[in-house]
Amino acid sequence: MSLEKHRNLLDYAVSFLLRRKGKNFATVLVFTLVVFTLASVVMMMGSLKQEARETLSLAPDITVQKIIAGRQGLVPLEYATAIEEIRGVSRVEPRIWGYYYDAEEDATYTIIGVESLTGLPFEVRGNLSESAVIVGEAIAREKRLRIGDRLILRDHRGEYVKFRVVGIFSSRSALQSADIIVMPRSEARKFFGIPKEYSNDLAVYVANPAELSNIAIKISQKLPDARVLTKQQIRETYDAIFGWRSGVFLAAILGAILAFAILVWDRASGLTAEEKKEIGILKALGWSTGDVLEMRTFEGVVLALNSYLAGVLLAYLHVFYLGAPLLKPVLLGWSTLYPEFELMPAVTFEDLILIFVISVVPFLAAIVVPSWRASTIDPDEAMRGI
Amino acid sequence: MIRCEHVTKVFNKGRANEVVAVRDVSLEIAEGKVAVLRGPSGSGKTTLLSLIACVARPTSGRVFVSGKEVSKLPENFLTSFRREHVGIIFQQFNLIPELSVLDNVTLPLVPTPIPPRESRKRALELLRRLGMEKRSSFKVRELSGGEQQRVAIARAMIANPRIIVADEPTAHLDTKLAEEFLDIMRSLKQEGRTIVIATHDPLVYEHEIVDVIFDMRDGMLVGVERR
Ligand SMILES: Nc1ncnc2c1ncn2[C@@H]1O[C@H](COP(=O)(O)OP(=O)(O)OP(=O)(O)O)[C@@H](O)[C@H]1O
Ligand SMILES: [Mg+2]
After folding, report:
1. Is A377 found in the same domain as A245?
2. What is the total count of domains within chain A?
3. B79 contacts in chain A (CB < 8 Å)
4. A114: domain range?
5. Of A145, A173, A199, which residue sits at a domain end?
6. Quick count: other Cβ atoms within 10 Å of Cβ A264?
7. Chain B partners of A15 at a C-beta cutoff of 8 Å?
8. Record: contact A383-B103, CB cut-off 8 A
9. Rounded Cα–Cα distance for residues A73 and A200 (Å)
10. CA angle A214, A218, A220 (to 5 degrees)
11. Which of chain B's residues have a Cβ under 8 Å away from the Cβ of A8?
């Protein structure tokens, strides 16, 4: 076994491919398309998964709501005191938030009250007075708001309230922040007309994550009319929607269909009489079955790698620069929920491996298997013009 | 030296279309000699040549080439033996049209550890010797029939084999080119190589370089003419 020999075979395979650009162009095109489709699906799924993970990382360990007549009602602040008494609870934060319908834009925003506008991971500028707000990028775009601009909203009594925009969320996590307005908690309370001794829900933080489900059970026991949601439950919900598994499943099905299409296409074009003759000639000239097979495999690998790289690159551009216009209508219903939703580039090494395995491997099989059969042609066939 | 002992080659054995292409042939060709296999179409010339060139194995009987019993060699040894000991000039030239002249000539050396630069150097030397150095970067399909045959000869010579076999080498050549081919064979003979040619062209078998003629009919050896 010498390395030189394999290098010679590889050189030959490459130079031969270059000489038959026409024929190989079609192969590369079809295969690139397959990789492109697969990679687009996987990348989109990966991005959604990443988005969900980020959303989740901001969520409190436990969310406590009060259920009144089967619906979510205001939570009395005594509940917070009761929960604080449970061992292992590090902090309870009464949250003020709600939805706001903007008739002018025919859009619904989420208003969130926070303790202080300065502790947030966003840049804020200007005077952080009572009426200061930070708005999501989508709102800023729709309403053409810039930092320092005035934002007028109608409060729960229908009266106009003036706010000053001091910051705009970047879309690092678009799902999170696109349609959100953040304002001081006291302002939000006034705006929605929520009495002092109530909040919308409670965010509960736990010192030790291992105790999370225990503490959740204790809260339910102590406050039977409360609905207790743990981070874990939210995660499961996300998984069900943008689930990795469903993504892989979808990708695998698509891959199988396309690989099948390629196989059929390859079978239809097949090994031409010329290719078979060529193999016979090589064998008569002293190439072994293994040499022929190795050369064909190199051909396949070179074609596959080129198509793979091209397909992955195109998919990246398609998904993250263009927002997956070819896939959005096909996949899930979320595009109607979040028409402005921007996919964040989030490609993991595992994604790339996955795409590789479900595309390149069947492709190589499709190239190598027919050649393998042809490479067993007896060299004496070449003696008679087949 | 080439020796065949009771060599028989049967195609499609045991089936309705069974053909005995070579039947119980025994012959010997001494080293450095030029031998001709002569006979009408279908008499088994190409088949016997394949056996001598180690591209096929006899159904029964033994074939010895350069002192080795090649009919006994396993496939992978036969392959490398063929590459190192036998150069084949095919009836249809069997060049690969997409490749350049140079790449066609170096083809037998691809599955070897010989570096490309070295094989190219050897190929250019051979092409120069055959008056083809100016055509080395041409595509094969841009060549005339005579030029194509020289490429085929250069390719057969690239591994410097001791034995050259040629199947109907003058079938596609006019008289002048056929003469030139025989001149090349003469120079190869002068280097001490053994040459076996299957042909029914009198221009070849009447040529002075030929040492022995084997006459074939229906797969059988029916006569030997030594000069
Ligand atoms: N692979 C094969 N399968 C079946 N029959 C074959 C095969 N190869 C050769 N034959 C048969 O064997 C016989 C001898 O063929 P061969 O090619 O050796 O003859 P030839 O003397 O070279 O003829 P020609 O002068 O036409 O080239 C023919 O009848 C041919 O049909
Ligand atoms: Mg013949």
Report:
1. yes
2. 2
3. 283, 286-288
4. 75-199
5. A199
6. 11
7. 103
8. no
9. 7
10. 115
11. 109-116
Q: What is the ipTM of this complex?
A: 0.90
**Does A27 share its domain with A109?**
no
Give the percent of chain A with pLDDT over 90.
10
Residue A97 has pLDDT above 50, yes or no: yes
DSSP A344: P
In this structure, the residue with its CA closest to atom 7 of ligand 1 is B11
Separation CA B34–CA A244 (nearest Å): 74
Asked whether B39 lines ligand 1 (CB < 6 A), one says yes
Element of type H or E holding A353: helix A349-374
Could you tell me which of A31, A49, A53 has the C-alpha nearest to residue A255? Answer: A31
- Closest approach atom of ligand 1 to CA B39: 21
Residues A7 and A133 in one domain: no
Same-domain status, A247 and A367 = yes
For testing contact with chain B, the best of A10, A285, A296 (most B CBs within 10 A): A285
Are residues A109 and A247 located together in one domain of the fold?
no
pLDDT in tens, B25-65: 999 999 999 999 999 999 999 999 999 998 888 999 999 99
pLDDT at B86 over 70: yes
Tell how many helices (H) and how many strands (E) occur in chain A.
13, 13
Q: Measured between beta carbons, which residues in chain A are less than 8 angstroms from residue B53?
A: 284, 383
A209 in a domain, yes or no? no
Judge if A369 and A255 occupy the same domain: yes
CB distance B46 to ligand 1 below 6 Å: yes
Q: What is the pLDDT of residues A7-62, one digit of tens each?
A: 888 888 888 777 777 777 877 887 888 888 888 877 877 777 777 677 677 678 88
The span from the CA of A277 to the CA of A172, in Å, is 58
- Residue B76: which of A1, A214, A385, A125 has the closest Cα? A1
Question: Nearest Cβ partner of A19 from B80, B98, B107?
Answer: B98
User: Could you tell me the residue ranges of all domains in chain B?
Assistant: 2-99+162-226
Q: Is the pLDDT at A177 greater than 60, yes or no?
A: no
Task: Give the Å distance between the CA of B136 and the centre of ligand 2.
Answer: 29
One domain for residues A318 and A371: yes
Instruction: Please state the atom number of ligand 1 nearest to the C-alpha of residue B48.
Output: 18
Model pTM score: 0.69
Indicate if A129 and A178 belong to the same structural domain: yes
Q: Residue A231 falls within a domain, yes or no? A: no
Final residue before a domain boundary, out of A152, A180, A199: A199
B19 at interface of A, judged by CB pairs closer than 8 A: no
Which ligand sits nearest to residue B13's alpha carbon? 1
**Which residue from B44, B62, B88 is spatially nearest to A280, judged by alpha carbons?**
B88
Structure confidence at residue A338 (pLDDT):
45
B66 shares contact with chain A (CB less than 8 Å) = no
Question: What CATH architecture does domain B2-99+162-226 belong to?
Answer: 3-Layer(aba) Sandwich (3.40)
pLDDT band at A173 (very low <50, low <70, confident <90, very high): low
Backbone CA torsion sign across A203, A208, A209, A210 = negative
